[in-house]
Amino acid sequence: MSRRALKNVALAYLASHEDQEFTDLALQEYKTATNMTEQFTALASIAQNPVKIRDDVLADFYDKWQNDYLVVNKWFALQAVSDIPGNVENVQKLLSHPTFDLHNPNKVYSLIGGFCGLPVNFHAKDGFGYEFMGDIVLQLDKINPQVASRMVSAFSRWKRYDETRQKLAKAQLKKILSSNGLSKNVV
Q1: Both 96 and 55 in a single domain?
Q2: Which residues form a coiled coil (predicted)?
Q3: Residue 16: which domain range?
Q4: What is the 3-state secondary structure (H, E, C) of 2-37?
Q5: Which uninterrupted H or E stretch holds 149?
Q6: pLDDT (tens digit, 9 = 90+) per residue, 8-55?
Q7: For the chain, what is the domain count?
Q8: Claim: this prediction has a pTM higher than 0.85
Q9: How far apart are CA 155 and CA 66, in angstroms?
Q10: What interhelical angle do 36-47 and 54-65 show, nearest 10?
């Protein structure tokens, strides 16, 4: 187990260089994996980079594991926590994925919770991550106020960021608070 864990960490470090040789190595590991854990680890190495094969490998993994509810949740979370530039758009597209359901808290925690748990795209200087989360919180509040409450907590650290981000996050909080019919959970 220790050797496999070390191999997986090394693969992730190598693949983070966005060098074609290391991407090929991660792809080879993905293709030759003998179990889902090894395959998922190789997939994670590929998914963290904006390489050409990223979408194809993600689609292949989904095709293989689409009938396993927990694995699909991991697949959503993996994409949500990616540091690739513009990942907000990828997460937005996943909201329309046939197996994603905004009414399912586990799916929401995997995709939306994963996205807001990683600062790179959620706290992007353009504020798009905050705007996305503000809209999602308002949608969730009408579906499941408890889940919306948990998601709005992503804004709880807004004062720790620079002035630009503080203004953008605060604007979304104001938008949420000014919404008609907002549940007590979110307030």
Answers
A1: no
A2: none
A3: 1-65
A4: HHHHHHHHHHHHHHCCCCHHHHHHHHHHHHHCCCHH
A5: helix 145-152
A6: 778 777 877 777 888 888 899 999 999 888 899 999 989 988 878 999
A7: 2
A8: yes
A9: 32
A10: 150
